[in-house]
Write a structure and sequence with these properties.
Residues 53-102 form the HNH nuclease domain. Keywords: Endonuclease, Hydrolase, Nuclease. The chain is 40% helix and 10% strand. With 118 residues, the chain is an alpha+beta fold. It has two domains: 8-39, no CATH class; 46-114, no CATH class. The strands form two sheets. It has a two-stranded antiparallel sheet with strand order 1-2. Strands 3-4 form a two-stranded antiparallel ribbon. A hairpin with a 5-residue loop joins strand 1 (7-8) and strand 2 (14-15). It is elongated.
Length: 118
Amino acid sequence: MPTRAPRICSCGKVVASGAACPCQAKRAAERKAAFDKKRGTASQRGLGADWRKVRDAHIARFPNCWCGAPAVDVDHIVPRRIAPERRLDPSNLQSLCKKHHSGAKQREERRLYGKAQQ
């Protein structure tokens, strides 16, 4: 069975194909920490106790995504950055599975509303 040749990382180390070099993992962790520090807490972003209460009630009432898979995310149909006043509005919420919340929904939002400002 053929295997791919190892590659050379930017730090100069030889790394097996498909594996991450430890230096890259460290850089990724540093980038994530900087991003998380800049974006604020869940409460600061409008996802505090009031949101969790509405979210839990919505999941209890609508436990499945439209595709039939168990819902893991409650999504705002009109994004919070477009209509912040509808943040807790039950008519602006939909239950989605991870696949549909992470992929299709986010692409659709970018198409309709543009990329979010950081």
